[in-house]
Amino acid sequence: MANMETATVTSGTAAVPVFPPLTTTFTPPAACATQFMMLQIDQNQIWMNPLTPANGITATSCYASQWLQSSSQVAFSPLVCPSGYQTQTAFASPAGYIACCPDGFEGLSLTANAPDNRPASGATCYSGIFSSAILVTEYNSSAIVTSTVLTATDFNAQVYAYAYDGFAASSGATSSSKKPSQNSGSSGASSTSTPGSQSTSSLGGGVIAGIVVGVIVAIALFVGLVGFCLHRRRKRNQEENAVHEVHGESTAHGTRDSAGGFDSAAGHESKDKKNRRISELSAERRTSELAASSTPLLELQEMEWDPATKEREREEKRRRESGVLGGTERDAG
């Protein structure tokens, strides 16, 4: 490819650069996504859609017509990445300048002699062999030699592709996802991979599953704790209600205090005194009745069974009789 970096149109005495635009999304044929070629003329490197795979052979259908003009003249302005491409690098200077690489490619290799106003001129996109098998067509200097199916484990090789470079059509298309690497080779191809740092990261399925399990466990623990607290509260209320019922029965026989409530102690004391008084009255009554019924019997028994009393009664009777008899005799004399 030619390395002419500027194209100008003379207007009077001033030279005005001409920037080819690419304002719509170019969609290459579907075969371009799987078209890989090993080129003997380029040290047997594997390229995706090379322009000249062999002498006298060109392949331009995989590229926008403006790209051929831009690759030999000036950068696109504005630039919309083609279908199947993504913004690989957004440069700090010049402002809004980007480079687009095919989807899945790992990085961008810059040439050492690129101008400051177009740092990705002649840059090369690179990637390791994809994990799936790819069909590689081998070319010698003039024609196809053979076709070979390769996988990532066959050998430590890389795939290269051309980059689209220019000024982004909008600021939203200039997000940087890769860091470009520098290469001093004339072909612009890098022999080693320099994976860039990812601007964004996504959660894997395992992380999402772990988060879901953690949330479920937390909810289960919370529900269990709430249930335990409600059970304890219900049990405590039942115990308090039982205590209140027992207290209410005990105060039913008490006396009212000054506040209008029941004094259970006074009630118990009054009840005990009343019971003792009833017992004492019953005992006194039984004693009186027993005394009343037993006194005549005792007197009768005393009169009947006391010998001294009976003897005195006889003696008095004899004296009365003797006195009567004596008086009678005196009256007769």
Automatic annotation (TrEMBL):
Q: Which parts of this chain are annotated as the region Disordered?
A: 173-200, 238-333
Which spans are transmembrane here? Answer: 203-230
Query: What keyword terms does UniProt attach to this protein?
Result: Membrane, Transmembrane, Transmembrane helix
Q: Does the keyword Transmembrane apply?
A: yes
Q: In what ranges is there compositional bias, type Basic and acidic residues?
A: 238-256, 266-288, 307-333
Instruction: Reply yes or no: does the keyword Membrane apply.
Output: yes
Q: Which PANTHER family match?
A: GLYCOPROTEIN 38, SH3 DOMAIN PROTEIN (AFU_ORTHOLOGUE AFUA_1G13610)
Can you say what this protein is called? Mid2 domain-containing protein
Biological source species:
Verruconis gallopava
